[in-house]
Amino acid sequence: MPGDLPKGWASARFRDAMRLEERREPIDPKRIYKLLGVRWYGNGAFFREERLGDGLSAQHIYRVKPGDVIYNRLFAWKGSFGLIGEDLAGCYVSNEFPLFAARLDRVDPQFLLRVLQHPRTGERADAFSTGTTSISRNRLGEDDFLHFPLNLPPLPEQRAIAGILGSVEEVIARTQTLIGAIEKSKHATMRELLTRGVRRNKAPLKALPARWVLGRVAENVTHIPRDWKLVTLTSLAKLESGHTPDRKEPTYWDGTIPWISLQDADALAKLAISETAEMIGPAGLANSSARMLPSGTVVLQRTANIGLASIMGREMCTSQHFANWVCGSQLDPYYLQQVFRHMSREWQRLMAGSVLPDIYMGTFKALQILLPPLVEQKKISDIGAAFDRRLEHERDTLTILIKNRAALAQELLSGRLRLPESIIARHRGKPAKAA
Fold first, then answer.
1. Which structural domain, as residue segments, surrounds residue 245?
2. 316 and 233: one domain?
3. pLDDT tens digits for range 91-139
4. What is this structure's pTM?
5. pLDDT (tens digit, 9 = 90+) per residue, 17-67?
6. Do 193 and 204 share a domain, yes or no?
7. CATH of the domain at 392
8. 3-state SS of the chain: helix, strand, coil percent to 5?
9. Which of 348, 371, 394 is the last residue of a domain?
10. Which burial class, exposed, middle or buried, applies to 130 when counting CB atoms under 10 A from its CB (0-12, 13-18, 19+)?
11. How many CB atoms lie within 10 A of CB 150?
12. Is residue 4 assigned to a domain?
């Protein structure tokens, strides 16, 4: 965060805001210690409860207090910093995670956490990381960490900044919780719809007519509605693959033909896909095994993010990383999409043992699905799509919130955006809090 400091701000180093702590205690090998660490992803400290001696090689452990900061030496460049909150009082860290106590007369711990989470801190950690092996080359030493520059507003302004960013983070957390609840509700609802139909418990049942080997949407399904069938998917839909034109031929690329690839993961999470990250030209299509597929084709990713399923909104082609289904008159493509989206456990089972996430095309030739009457298929797909539209909306909202939070943090932590005095004044005269 370069540039002239705002009026009232001070130029400092991390060592001016925190100090290295070693609160050593005798080790009791019979005791269970609640040990903390920091992942290279996520947002702060986490539990990893262990008994000393059972996988813990550290010679010392340190007791943490609210307001302490810990970090992961190896992954500091990815933002692996954690702030100890009140809920983690009484826990410990081993000496593999440096422990620092915030100087409460200089810095508010919540403000400090936002500085640590800022991408610039990770960039500095990357620049200062040292080591001679692939394991140690990214390690960040404590002395280098404490030397990082830090721009400090007055304490009331620090607390106001942390409060504003914390409010946005609370909205983000609530949105994430809502998304999880909708996903859970959809899973429970679709499990019933995809095995019992819209009539559910009122549907007359019959025993499953054959062994359901591949394509199960749920375990232990022994009976299905009397007017349903268990069928091989290829008897209802034509299976098509894709191909990648030669990258060395410029004339094959930058055309007007939409070509779905692994770069389109976000678009494939939508109900329909019409735009792609890359386009190919007529020559690329003619000189490869890629084929134009009609609007309404169900495109299923079979490598990497296995199970992403969308509907082609217009004529398109794909790379070889997809299994594409052109549905016949007995199969509603949106019903098939919901079946695929509910098969996460089956996709995991089918790729078990693979070195890379991959389901071979041959596997799809034996895939079986439950087939309701076409009218019921549409009703089931309408319900699933309603859930998915709500999820799309909330995920789009979450993306916007996260981007806005990052932009707001950049402006507030640099001082380019100053909070009104009326907001800062609310934090004047308040006692320092550890967390």
1. 200-371
2. yes
3. 888 888 899 999 999 999 999 999 998 888 888 888 886 655 555 556 8
4. 0.85
5. 999 998 877 777 777 778 888 875 555 555 555 555 554 544 578 889 998
6. no
7. 1.10.287
8. 40, 20, 40
9. 371
10. exposed
11. 21
12. no
249 domain-assigned? yes
Measured between alpha carbons, how far is 431 from 423 in angstroms, rounded to an integer?
Answer: 17
Indicate the residue among 345, 371, 397 that finishes a domain.
371
> Are residues 365 and 250 located together in one domain of the fold?
yes
Q: How far apart are CA 370 and CA 78, in angstroms?
A: 45
SS3 of 217, please? coil
Q: 70 to each of 112, 136, 142, 205, 332, how far by Cα in Å?
A: 12, 18, 11, 58, 53
With contact defined as beta carbons under 8 Å apart, do 239 and 325 qualify?
yes
Q: Are residues 60 and 208 in the same domain?
A: no
DSSP-assigned letters across all residues of 9-26:
-EEEEHHHHEEE---B--
Is the dihedral angle over the CA atoms 399, 401, 404, 409 positive or is it negative? negative
Burial (CB < 10 A; 0-12, 13-18, 19+), residue 158, is buried
Contact 334, 309 (CB under 8 A): no
CATH number for the domain spanning 136: value is: 3.90.220.20
